[in-house]
Design brief:
Number of helices: 2
Low-confidence stretches: none
Distance between the termini: 93 Å
Mean pLDDT: 76
Strand content: under 5%
Oligomer: single chain
Radius of gyration: 36 Å
Structural class: mainly alpha
Largest sheet: none
Order of helices and strands: HH
Number of strands: 0
Helix content: 40-55%
């Protein structure tokens, strides 16, 4: 008895459907396990972080860094703290550009005190 090729395709079709269903079940269970693992790690990280009450509180008991009045005669120049664009402008003109009007807006200014 010879099997026609078209009947062979129909005979194999239910097997492929079963394989697709099984692979989808496996994929769903894998995704479920990965999501649960990620959730577990997030919960563990939340409980491992120190509570806010355990952090050192900033209070007035810290010693002030400025130990006395500011004296103009005792000021020093800190070298290497000029922005490169300002250094380029000073190198081109050879000197500081001087004072500006009080009404000039000072946008994008950054004052860093450490």
């Amino acid at each position: 008895m010879e099997i026609a090729p078209s009947s062979l395709v129909f005979a194999l079709q239910p097997i492929t459907k079963i394989a697709d269903v099984e692979s989808m079940k496996l994929l769903r269970s894998f995704i479920r396990v990965m999501l649960l693992a990620a959730l577990g790690m997030a919960v563990a990280a939340a409980f491992a972080a120190p509570p806010i009450s355990a952090l050192p509180a900033t209070s007035s008991a810290t010693t002030p860094r400025v130990q006395g009045p500011v004296e103009d005669a005792e000021r020093v120049v800190l070298h290497g703290n000029t922005h490169p664009l300002i250094q380029a402008a000073q190198n081109q003109s050879g000197t500081d550009l001087g004072a500006v009007e009080d009404s000039l807006p000072a946008g994008r200014m950054l004052l860093l005190l450490t």
